[in-house]
Amino acid sequence: MDLATIIGIVLGMVLILMAILLGGELGLFVDVVSILIVLGGGTCAVMIRFGLKDLTNAFKVAGNAFKDKTAPLGELIDKIEELATLARKEGLLALERVSFDDLFLQKGINYLVDGADSEQLQTLLYTDLANTGSRHENGSKIFAGLGDAFPAFGMIGTLVGLVNMLANMDDPASIGPAMATALLTTLYGSVLANLISLPIADKLSLRAEQERARKNLIIEGLLGIQKGENPKILREFLETYMPPVERKKDE
Amino acid sequence: MDLATIIGIVLGMVLILMAILLGGELGLFVDVVSILIVLGGGTCAVMIRFGLKDLTNAFKVAGNAFKDKTAPLGELIDKIEELATLARKEGLLALERVSFDDLFLQKGINYLVDGADSEQLQTLLYTDLANTGSRHENGSKIFAGLGDAFPAFGMIGTLVGLVNMLANMDDPASIGPAMATALLTTLYGSVLANLISLPIADKLSLRAEQERARKNLIIEGLLGIQKGENPKILREFLETYMPPVERKKDE
Amino acid sequence: MDLATIIGIVLGMVLILMAILLGGELGLFVDVVSILIVLGGGTCAVMIRFGLKDLTNAFKVAGNAFKDKTAPLGELIDKIEELATLARKEGLLALERVSFDDLFLQKGINYLVDGADSEQLQTLLYTDLANTGSRHENGSKIFAGLGDAFPAFGMIGTLVGLVNMLANMDDPASIGPAMATALLTTLYGSVLANLISLPIADKLSLRAEQERARKNLIIEGLLGIQKGENPKILREFLETYMPPVERKKDE
Amino acid sequence: MDLATIIGIVLGMVLILMAILLGGELGLFVDVVSILIVLGGGTCAVMIRFGLKDLTNAFKVAGNAFKDKTAPLGELIDKIEELATLARKEGLLALERVSFDDLFLQKGINYLVDGADSEQLQTLLYTDLANTGSRHENGSKIFAGLGDAFPAFGMIGTLVGLVNMLANMDDPASIGPAMATALLTTLYGSVLANLISLPIADKLSLRAEQERARKNLIIEGLLGIQKGENPKILREFLETYMPPVERKKDE
Amino acid sequence: MDLATIIGIVLGMVLILMAILLGGELGLFVDVVSILIVLGGGTCAVMIRFGLKDLTNAFKVAGNAFKDKTAPLGELIDKIEELATLARKEGLLALERVSFDDLFLQKGINYLVDGADSEQLQTLLYTDLANTGSRHENGSKIFAGLGDAFPAFGMIGTLVGLVNMLANMDDPASIGPAMATALLTTLYGSVLANLISLPIADKLSLRAEQERARKNLIIEGLLGIQKGENPKILREFLETYMPPVERKKDE
């Protein structure tokens, strides 16, 4: 579970609720039509941009913003050092006996065992590296798109409300409440963008980056194993890919 | 038909209409002069930027945002595997007998059959790749330009209305309706930009990207066929260009 | 004549005038001091940025936004094919007898005839290519700068007017007209930026790009002539630089 | 101590306090709920983006914005010249006897002494260079994120306040104070972003850049030492990495 | 003297003064506290970002925005042609007798005379080229930072004023003047950013670019002299670095 995402959204909502309840009553801030305009309109705009399939996928991928499933890089480096030691002692074919959770590592080891040369290995794995991560990237773009579209439709809703209010200014008593309702769509648009869509877009983009960094480290490790590098030196080299703080902990 | 584009625009308009009708009457929101200023002014600004021919082309190209004509990459890879098998068995010249819907693939096969070497093939096809897609890109830029210009002319219209209203504030009763009308251009500008122009610009840019990805895959496939690569390995390599989800389905 | 630029500006102004006249009278919208602040202030800001000489040049170059002088790429390719045929038949020196309107083509042919080798030719022409186009680019940057500065000075003018109005609120009757006048600078800034400066900046940038594409095509053509390439193949290669639509027409 | 950061923040706060006290009383400007919404909401949004661990790290790293610990480049160049002289006279192994505060320099010297060749040295050190600095960069991104999120939650707080005020406009006397409170969140968001978060983000990014420049200079120095370059010439070359002003002082 | 900078700032101020005096009196627009908040607050924010030393340097460098000291490129090319002729006739050592105002040219000639080979020459001069210009760039960034910070503190000042005014709305007569004062900081921030800081930032960035172009031309010239190139051909090659207009004048 990615606690940060859940705590962030829940706590953010609680803070906004607190502001509402301390100054008035919740009922004033709930308006179904306003919610429909902002949520629906923003989603429509993004649907045109990316198509139905990508939009649906994005919501599936968004689940990843709530999960924290990346195993630490340190464990991966341990594993690669182990494989390098095994390969040095018993040859590359010995790697066939080991199995992995990580699909990308498995794939690379399969190429190694099948006798792909260094150049083939790089071509195959870097092409894969360049083309994956795109699902997360795509999800990130769609949430960033929602983060653009929600405030825009918030403003459109407010403009509709203002025009209606201004055209019917006969009853001064109704001006205040009418304008309050008009502002609701702007409020919804701003909360949906700044507390939900934009942060999730950034989290998904971070996930894509982590995935790429991880795959890069795996490729470097596999090339080192193939060259029969000294496992200790290979480990030291791979550790330069980790932030210095985490590195220290391992020692 | 690209349903997402059509549903997105229609549903978005319905939501805005709903907001209008629940709060007042449609007549308040229709003003021909305001529409002329925003639509006309925005189009004028974009016409200066890109010229008449490009503007007209953009509207033709925009049709593509409503059509979904890209055949799935999976089918293309099947086709290339088939060609690779044929070329291996009966030689490159055998490819002459096959014909294709895809003009770019046809062109590449023609070069292959005509005996272009690997370097020539790459030069010719990559230059073509670099230069096409530009029609979609151009259309995308023009719609993005409209997405900039419509809100600007919306604001210009509102300023004109405000100046007129402020200079004639003798009759307080007329202030409300005059200001309501003044705000209409801002509303039009915002809807035209955020529901129509900007999403279509993004969709056209996505189409250009898909076209480029497709051509790239074709070039890689043709180079593999020319080298006489094993069709299975070629297939596996080309599949790294597909998102992992779609890849799985094939298996 | 680049009709798009002229029609765009004139029609845009007509639309704004129409909005003005339908809602009030033109006199309300003309204020010499306001015009001086926006036009003068914006020009001052840009003068500091780029200097007097560049500013003056920019206005000269801006004329190009109103002229459409680029000969179609198709004609240029015809010319190059012709030269390639001549060079093949009678040798490179025969090119000396031909003369050209296009100064860049002339220059390249001169180098060819003088016996520059392929590397020298590329160095000389690509350096020229990298350094020209800068006049248009410079003009484009200056108009983009004006497009930034006009709205800023529009806002400054409005703030000055608002402060004056607010400090003298004794006579309620004068508030409306004073505020109307204050808004005029914002209106001027917005029209000058969105209808004139920014579109012209983009048009000049497009011209620079077209010039670069043209020179690139000429360089590729000259290199092909030097290598003694088959004129038909050279033509086909150069045509990949044209948008597919225009290409079709030639055939 | 980085005096600039401390003076900047303290003096900035004093100026704002002065403005407050000259126009009213401090009590008007302190509202705990408003502070909670802006500080809490903004932090929640950033927590979703980057996760708890990165957020906590960012506050630790932020301490660096208040410390000025980078030794001048001039001293580093003196050190490298000394090492180059030593290595020339007594061989690379003599460097083993020297010890350094700078961990990166120490690491590079160790590689040198261990007999790494020029290519290995570059691979190891440049990979380290590319991967470090990321802690500062990460801290910088998080503060930039706060600089985005604080004004957004400032606006959200103001919208909540406005809706509450507008819905209860019965008592005209309460409008002013209610609106004053509503504006407080916007004020907080603006001060937190423009006086604290964004400047600290830039300072951390500057620190990362300085660290990179320093490591780059060390790598160039080590490569020069390995090649046995003349210490004077090496010094002159390394000094091109310093701003000319500082260079002059050394002479 | 860079007349454009001086005229731009003076004339811009005159225009704003004119707008003030035609609509009211100067006294309304001068408020020492407001000036302190905007100037002081903006400077504090930038001080945190860049540190005291860089801020002080930036004001020194800013003087360059008011000086026009770059000798025309034409003269530099004349000088290089002369040196090339001398070197061809009497050998590279003859260059030792010539002396130059331009420090960079002097330095390059010294390397030439000292017998540096082509590669050394390029390494030394391009490293210098990459590292200088940074003083101007730094000054430019700091003024761009001020251009961001002044409007932000203008807004902060206005918010403080508005909160004070709204909390004390008992006396309607005081509302106008209080709001007028509140708006002053926004006005100051806008003028300081758009008439002073941002244009000076751009001018300094232009100066950095000109310096880089000049040094680039000098490096190309020195490499040509070293290779013993024909002075005429060298001249023609160097002239491609000049804008075509200026080139024409020389002929």
Structure description:
The structure is a homopentamer of 251-residue chains. By secondary structure, chain A is an all-alpha fold. Chain A is built from 10 helices and no strands. The first copy, chain A, has helices at 3-23, 32-50, 52-62, 73-90, 103-113, 118-131, 134-167, 172-226, 231-239, 244-250. In chain A, helix 7 (134-167) runs antiparallel to helix 8 (172-226). The longest helix of chain A has 55 residues, at 172-226. The radius of gyration of chain A is 26 Å and the shape is elongated. Chain A starts with a helix and ends with a helix. The model of chain A has no long low-confidence stretch (mean pLDDT 85). Chains B and C meet through helix 2, helix 3, helix 6 and helix 7 of B and helix 1 and helix 8 of C.
Characteristic terms for this protein:
homopentamer; elongated; 79% helix; 10 helices; mainly alpha; 251 residues
Give the class of chain A from helix and strand content and strand pairing: mainly alpha
Gyration radius of chain A, to the nearest Å? 26 Å
Tally of individual helices of chain A: 10
How much helix, percentage-wise, in residues of chain A?
A: over 70%
Q: Overall mean pLDDT score of chain A?
A: 85
Question: Runs of chain A with pLDDT <50, length 5+?
Answer: none
The major pleated sheet of chain A works out as: none
Strand content of chain A: under 5%
Could you say which overall geometry of chain A the principal axes of the C-alpha atoms support?
Answer: elongated
Q: End-to-end span of chain A in angstroms?
A: 28 Å
β-strand number of chain A? 0
- Oligomeric description of these chains: homopentamer
The interface involving the most residues is between: A-B, 42 and 48 residues
- Helix and strand string of chain A, N-terminal first? HHHHHHHHHH
